[in-house]
Amino acid sequence: MSEIVITKSPPLCGNIICSGSKNAALPILAATILTKGKNIIQNVPRLTDTENMLEILTALGGVCNININTVEVDFTDCREYSASYELMNTFRGSFFLAAPILSRMGRARISMPGGCPIGNRPIDLHLKGFAAMGAEIENGHGYVDLYCEKLKGAKIYLDFPSVGATENLIMAAVMAEGETIIENAAAEPEITDLANFLIKQGAKIHGAGSDTIKIFGVKCLEPVTYSVISDRIEAGTFMSAFAITGGHGKIENVNPVHLKPVTAKLREMGAYVDEHRNYINIDASKKLSSANIKTLPFPGFPTDMQAQFSALLCETEGSGIIVETVFENRFLHIGELNRMGANIRIDGRSSYIEGNKHLSGANVCAMDLRGGASLVLAGLCADGETRITGANHIKRGYENLCGKLRSIGANIFLE
Ligand code: UD1
User: Fold this and answer.
1) Given 227, 256, 283, which residue is the final one in a domain?
2) How confident is the model at residue 114 (pLDDT cuts 50, 70, 90)?
3) Other residues' Cβ atoms within 10 Å of the Cβ of residue 257
4) Which of 198, 227, 256 is the last residue of a domain?
5) Ligand 1, from 160, 166, 170, 182: best to mutate by most atoms within 8 Å of Cβ?
6) Residues near 161 by Cβ (< 8 Å), separated by ≥ 6?
């Protein structure tokens, strides 16, 4: 098991380039099942999650060729309606496969996503939507079985704007009979990216990026070449890295519009952030002040940035409160930050963070992806050495994190 080793780093300085978005690449790769032919997907980050997705696609009958960040997926044949539990259980994103397999094969067997460290993560909203579109659903032996000769358009209201359910239902609707309307849909940029990929293939989707999405089913989709958007959470993590070390630099290959809630919060805290078409400059050399944060669906502050800001607020002037409204148990990193000298108290869905702490290096354990990123940030400014076990969680979502941070002056190595 690899470990990340960090020693206190100087203020980070220089240019850093973002990779493609993990959360956009995963549903887009899953959606290639819908097309008979070869799609070429560019700007795919090389991560454990994307590699696992490609392994599943191969097991289902797709022919996948990978050339650095470009992936060709040929689904002229889709042979299977299920992949093994071992493959599917490697990441929650595998549930994205339900809609494209069902639409293509008339049947899908998907491993039930288990409990996950950050919460229960149910799939009821996905299943209610499939049922409204005419699918029969059976649960048993750890699998969900879905059957439907032909999915039919339906009007679906999501009780919560779930990202995964919105994506699954868009994929179910693009070749369903008639019109589907998804209300209270999630509006995350990754959903718009999936919709743009499908629209390029010939799908008729209106309103992606808003809370009401209308989809008119088409007979078939054509293979295309498509480039995945950049990763706003990786960019936000780099912004936090500059901020926590008091550094300054340029983050390239980003869409500043996707980062608005993070940028607004950093500006409120005193950082200078200058937005350009596809890059941002950040200067956090002045001591930052604390802030209160509430995570919300997009365009609110992303839950995927909550852990990184928990680390940052330990170093800022004053105390701050973070309220996590999206997941019920996303504070696993707090105990580890406290081991590094933080003073954070959790009460229900809120964490109370005392600022101006001088963190000290320690042996800590990453228990989930973004929590792991928060420990990396803490390690950059903590005195002495920080060793992070559980680096596999971090590799699920950051392409070459240590190499990229080293290029702007961080003392960080993967051992
Ligand atoms: C996606 C992202 C994840 C991000 C999250 C919220 C991917 C691969 N992952 O996860 O990084 O943190 O969006 O922005 O894109 N819920 C239900 N029933 C359902 C589905 C969800 O109750 O059927 C609840 C969840 O338990 C959670 C909330 O809705 O409390 C948000 O979940 P959702 O938006 O679905 O997140 P994911 O798609 O799993």
Assistant:
1) 227
2) low
3) 12
4) 227
5) 160
6) 184, 185, 186, 187, 211, 297
Our answer to whether residue 116 is catalytic in this structure is: yes
The finding on whether 369 has its CB within 6 A of some atom of ligand 1 is no
Atom of ligand 1 nearest to the CA of 160: 29
Q: Examine the domain organization and report whether 329 and 198 are in the same domain.
A: no
Would the CB of 130 count as within 6 Å of ligand 1?
A: no
Pair 205, 235 in one domain: no
Count of the separate structural domains present in the chain: 2
Q: How far is the CA of 163 from the centre of ligand 1 (A)?
A: 5
**Whether residue 311 is found in the same domain as residue 386:** yes
pLDDT, tens digit, for every residue of 280-331?
Answer: 999 999 999 999 999 999 999 999 999 999 999 999 999 999 999 999 889 9
Claim to verify: residue 92 and residue 137 sit in the same structural domain: yes
Domain check: are 287 and 188 in the same one?
no
Mean pLDDT estimate for the chain: 95
Structure tokens that stand for 373 in this block? 């990123």
Cα angle 30, 17, 383; round to 5? 110
d(CA 255, CA 15): 16
User: Length of the chain in residues, anyone?
Assistant: 415
> Distance of CA 261 to CAs 81, 138, 295, Å?
40, 40, 10
| Measured distance CA(273)–CA(17) in Å, rounded | 16
In whole angstroms, what is the distance from residue 177 CA to residue 291 CA? Answer: 49
Give the domain CATH number at 364.
3.65.10.10
Do 213 and 295 lie in one domain? The reply is no
Say whether 194 sits in a helix, a strand or coil: helix
Ligand 1 binding pocket includes 192 (Cβ within 6 Å): no
Say how many Å lie between the CA of residue 165 and the centre of ligand 1: 8
Longest dimension (CA), the chain: 62
Residue 142 has a pLDDT of 84
Strand 70-74 with 63-67, pairing: antiparallel
How does DSSP classify residue 242?
Answer: H
Secondary structure, 3-state, 154-170: CEEECCCCCHHHHHHHH
The residue segments making up the domain with residue 12 are: 4-19+230-414
